[in-house]
Amino acid sequence: MARSVLLRTIVFLTAMALLAWGGFRALVENEVKRVVSVHVLDKTSHLVDMLEADGAQTADLVRGVIHPESFRDFGVMAHAIQVASVFFYSTDGVLITQLDTTVMGRMSASGGGAEPGGMPNRGAMPDRGTSGANPASGDYDGGHGHSGGHELDLPLSYPEIADLTLPNTRALRALFDGATSQYLSIHVIERTDGTPRSFAVPVMPVLGADGARVGFVGFVVDATHIYSTYARGVSAFAMLFLSCGVVLFGVPALGFWLQKRLAERSSRDATYLSRHDALTGLLNRSAFVAEAQKWLDDGRIGFAAYVDVDRFKLINDTYGHSVGDAFLRHIAGILREICGAAALVARLGGDEFTLVLPVKDREATEAVVARLMRRVSEGVEIDGLTVSSSISIGVAEPRRGDTLDALLQRADIALYHAKSAGRDTASFFTEEMGAAARRRRFLETRLRDACRTQKFELAFQPLVDAETSEILGYEALLRLDDAEGTPIPPSEFVPLAEEIGLIETIGTWVLFAATREIQAYDDQVRVSVNLSAEQFRSGDLVNLVSDALEQSGLSPERLELEITESVLLDENSSIAFQIDALKDMGIRFAMDDFGTGYSSLSTLWRYGFDRIKIDRSFVQALEESTERSQQMIELIVLLGTRMGMSITAEGIETEHQRKMLATMGCNVLQGYLFGRPAPLQAPRGPAAEASAS
Questions:
Q1: Which of 9, 89, 364, 367 is the most buried (most CB within 10 A)?
Q2: Lowest mean pLDDT among 120-124, 603-607, 630-634, 637-641
Q3: 401: left (phi over 0), alpha (psi -120 to 50) or beta
Q4: For 621, phi and psi rounded to 5 degrees?
């Protein structure tokens, strides 16, 4: 659009310039005719006056010019022609004819005289039929003082005079016939050296004493100077006009064109950004959904897949976001290269990508997935750093009557399964995955509802003395039932609560409920409460614990907080500060599930735990591999004892296990042998007995 507007503007300006030039050129020619006409006619009149004032002889000369009888006196005629030549210094030639157009004399402006017999100054008028025969032919050399060409044979006939002048034969013949009183034509010819010359050709009748025409006088006047002077002025004016036109029309048109170009480019950029991811250049979510829906409607989708970069947060935290962005661009390049232009590739946000493949063959799709995983695992060098990671892929196949949401949901379920399986793997959707996903959605809904209504329950499992079996305290364990009252295993809903970000809310509820219930049940025993890493990351754990103790009335010495080693992997100074602050309050800390993680001695030494809890897997192994399990448990007991820590063994289910663990040096035991987790019953202890009495 803008280009056509610019083209039309250029054409318009060019046409205007050509019209202006043509008009001004015609104006120049008309003006030159007028000036030359006035000049020549005025000079002719003055010539006659001068000749008459010169005396009788001059008068005779004039009469010799204007009377046919005197034309035979070539000497008189030649003198008159020389006088005329001197007076008309700008003429190139003079031609005198009788009334019947028979040439009686001619001369050149070079000053040469006329020869008797009508042969003045040979070569002054070029011969017809030669290279300089016709002034209108463009070959006539009309320069002053130039003597070239051939002789003019005399006398010339009437038509030959017309052919000789040529600019306007009809007008010249009208003059000869007496229809007009004068003739004047102007034409431009090109000299033999290529330079243009302008000539005026006036022809006037010669009148006798009685006023009748007796002959004609013709001049060839060099008007080059006058013409060129006017031409330069008009050219300058035309350039000024064109410049003004450019300024008035061209500049706005150019500005409009540039503005349109910028607007079109901005529109293209806006359209591109509205459809593409700014970081990777892949399709964004909205554009992908629109295109994928078209593919689904046309039956072109073979498989849909979700791709997730494993541990991408670690890359950002380790190398910085600039390297992380470059790595995402690298992943995008791999997806484009391997999937090809026939596939839809999009970035949904963060480190999550999605694909739609037109290939409907399962084996071919598996090959593409394998190539993707292999290429990504090779790593890439970014800013001198070698960055490597892996991807997890979930793939789903469309079904008859499928919607795009349903297809992508199945791919997302497959991706979740792949990540749960240990990452760096690919999963194709199966019905079992669908059942697991539905179960997960149910649990998520149940957790959110329980958080909103606080419908969780606490079960307490006894902690007993290994020697006397006396109850020393209880561990508070979270319980959740489904809508039908069926218990949901903590191993199923607790990891999900951590994943969806509800564990901090749940942990706060457990802390307040456990301290309140144990204080109401028994004012002597201790209570153990499990903490998650999220509760430490908030940085408000010390205040929460302090508020729970204050509201329940539980003394800090009766509260034991259990954490796993995974909480301490970040080596966050904030975590260490909160642990130290809580220990200063008198609260005890226990390392839960020791022996199953890193089992770092530096962690035990740095944080000064009060208790080590041996994981139940070692206790259960006593029945199968007694010697090896016994050696491991004895080693943990020795380590804890030397570091001044109490040792708790959990998962005790038989009397044999109790005796062995007590013999090995475990201080506190926990398991089904001493009681299953259950709600606390009626209050007991000194406070309850005093109240009852």
A1: 9
A2: 120-124
A3: left
A4: -70, -10
Task: Tokens for 366, please give them.
Answer: 């598996």
C-alpha to C-alpha distance for 611 and 647, rounded to whole angstroms: 6
Terminal C-alpha separation, the chain: 100
CB 649 within 8 A of CB 633: yes
Q: What is the separation of C-alpha 623 from the centre of its chain, rounded to a whole number of angstroms?
A: 68
- 3-state DSSP of 209-258: CCCCEEEEEEEEEECHHHHHHHHHHHHHHHHHHHHHHHHHHHHHHHHHHH
Please give the Cα distance from 503 to 490 (Å, whole number): 12
Q: Give the Cα separation of 355 and 394 in Å (integer).
A: 10
Q: In this structure, are residues 16 and 24 in contact, taking their beta carbons and an 8 Å threshold?
A: no
Q: At what angle do helices 321-339 and 362-377 cross, to 10 degrees?
A: 150
The Cα-based distances of 38 to 31, 32, 238, 418 in angstroms read 11, 10, 27, 106
Name the residue type at position 84.
A
Phi-psi region of 583 (alpha: psi -120 to 50; beta: other; left: phi over 0): alpha
pLDDT tens by residue, 181-205: 666 666 666 666 666 666 666 666 7
Please state the rounded mean pLDDT for residues 123-152: 31
Residue listed under structure tokens 């022996």:
595
Report how far apart, in Å, the C-alpha atoms of 691 and of each of 519, 525, 684 are.
14, 18, 10
Of 115, 85, 103, whose CA–CA distance to 153 is shortest?
103
Counting beta carbons within 10 angstroms of the beta carbon of residue 390, is it exposed (0 to 12), middle (13 to 18) or buried (19 or more)?
middle
Say if residue 355 is exposed, middle or buried (CB neighbours under 10 Å; 0-12, 13-18, 19+): buried
CA-CA distances (angstroms) from residue 541 to 509, 531, 535, 579?
Answer: 13, 10, 6, 9
Collect all residues with Cβ–Cβ distance below 8 Å to 139 and sequence separation of at least 6.
131, 132, 133, 189, 190, 192
Per residue in 389-445, pLDDT (tens digit) is 999 999 999 998 899 999 999 999 999 899 988 888 999 999 998 898 889 889 999
- Quickly state the pLDDT bin for 573 (edges 50, 70, 90): confident
User: What six digits make up the tokens of 601?
Assistant: 């001695």
Residue 1 has pLDDT above 80, yes or no: no
Interacting residues of 376 by C-beta distance below 8 A, sequence separation 6+: 309, 331, 334, 389, 390, 391
Q: Which of 626, 622, 687 is nearest to 649 (CA)?
A: 622
Taking the C-alpha atoms of residue 510 and residue 489, their distance in angstroms, rounded to an integer, is: 16
- The CA distance from 20 to 623, in Å, is 114
Q: How far is CA 631 from the centre of its chain?
A: 67
216 pLDDT band (50/70/90 cuts)?
A: low
* Residue length of the chain: 693
Cα-Cα-Cα-Cα torsion 346, 348, 349, 350, nearest 10 degrees, comes to -80
Q: Tell me the one-letter amino acid at 228.
A: S
CA distance 614 to 649: 5
3-state SS assignment for residue 678: strand
Measured CA to CA, the distance from residue 70 to residue 56 in angstroms comes to 15
CA gap 98, 302 in Å, rounded: 107
Range name among 99-108, 144-153, 356-365, 614-623 with the lowest pLDDT average: 144-153
- Rounded to an integer, what is the distance from CA 605 to the centroid of its chain? 56
